[in-house]
Specification:
Blueprint (H helix, E strand, L loop, with lengths): L11 H10 L11 H17 L10 H9 L1 H5 L8 H20 L8 H5 L2 H8 L11 E3 L2 E3 L6 H5 L1 E5 L8 H6 L3 E5 L2 E5 L8 E5 L8 H5 L5
Parallel strand pairs: 3-6
Antiparallel strand pairs: 1-2, 1-5, 4-5
Helix pairs in contact: 1-2
Length: 221
Amino acid sequence: DIRAHYRVDEDIEFVGQILVTRPPRCPRTGLNPGLDCLIVVLRRIYAHIMLGRYNLAGSDWVKKAEEENPILRHAWHMFGTSVEELQRASQARHDVLKALREIDGLDITSFNEMHTCDLMCRTFWSQHDFSLYDPRHSLDPFELDEWKENEIAHVSLLRLNRQENPGQTLQALVDKSYGIFDIDGRSFLYGPHMPLIVRLEYTPDASTRLSFDDLRVLGLP
């Protein structure tokens, strides 16, 4: 665990460098692409929100989430390059996969299934720090309408599918994600909240692929 070697509240530069530049490593027989991809994504997120300005590493919700979710703990692994370090990383991955199978019988290999599984939504993506929305309100009568479990995790994942919606831009998708919506005969206000990160699931069309800048620049209302 990186935190056993460095203080995340003081050694910000070193910790951030390790998180960003050391991807998961293990013998080829232990490969699990879905978990590896998720760990890379989480380490990028950790470098952004767990250190420095936001310093969420010591927050209560992070501690609670790590107690329940072995993936979140594994994302702090040192992932060194020596033979001994590779063996430790391999054993750590084995332990994570075993724990996941014991939690609700999870036996997932793809990144898409891994990052949207109930465990990740419940412990991580459903946190207010990642929410695109302020608390939702019904309009008649005007009152707070609590999000159902994991609901905020699902609605805060932007899905830009240009096969189904040719020509749609990221900003157009964002703009249509807020306002008043009628659901099951009731009207609800979806107001904006500024998340620390924005998750985007992008499906290009056959003829046109958006540039990286087209996918990383957006404005919230």
